[in-house]
Amino acid sequence: MIKLFKVKGKQMAENTHGTAGVKKQSAGELRLHKDIGDLNLHKTCSIAFPNGKDDLMNFEVTIRPDDGYYV
Fold first, then answer.
1. InterPro entries from the xrefs (predicted)?
2. What is the SS3 assignment for 27-70?
3. CA max distance for the chain
4. 62 and 48 in contact (C-beta within 8 Å)?
5. If both were cysteines, with which of 13, 45, 46, 50 could 41 make a disulfide (CB 3.0 to 4.6 Å apart)?
6. Containing H/E element for 12?
7. Burial of 32 (0-12, 13-18, 19+ CB in 10 A)
8. Are 39 and 53 in contact (CB under 8 A)?
9. What is the pLDDT along the chain (71 residues), one digit of tens a residue?
10. What is the Cα–Cα distance from 58 to 6, expressed in whole angstroms?
11. How far apart (Å, rounded) are the C-alpha atoms in residues 30 and 1?
């Protein structure tokens, strides 16, 4: 029990000194990362990440017709 208080106190001290801990990914981010890796897009579709690959939750999907009236 005493060790837990020491560990918690050490973590609090590190956070106050400016050393940031590792950001833990949520379950949704982990699933999205796996799904993006397995994604097989058609040639008329594309995905863009405006904030870079670190922010996978915000993306833009572009769908362009390859033939038809709106080409």
1. UBQ-conjugating_enzyme/RWD
2. HHHHHHHHHHHHCCCCCCEEEECCCCCCCCCCCEEEECCCCCCC
3. 72
4. yes
5. 45
6. helix 2-16
7. middle
8. no
9. 567 778 778 877 777 766 555 778 889 889 988 998 899 999 999 999 999 888 888 999 999 998 888 76
10. 39
11. 33
Domain that holds residue 46: 29-66
Within a domain: 4: no
User: Are 31 and 43 within 8 A, CB to CB?
Assistant: no
pTM, 2 dp? 0.55
What phi and psi, each to the nearest 5 degrees, are found at residue 20?
Answer: -80, 145
Q: Tell me, yes or no, whether 36 lies in a domain.
A: yes
pLDDT on residue 2: 67
What's the rounded Cα separation, in Å, for the pair 22 and 5? Answer: 20
Residue 44 is assigned to a structural domain of this protein: yes
Residue 48 domain-assigned?
yes
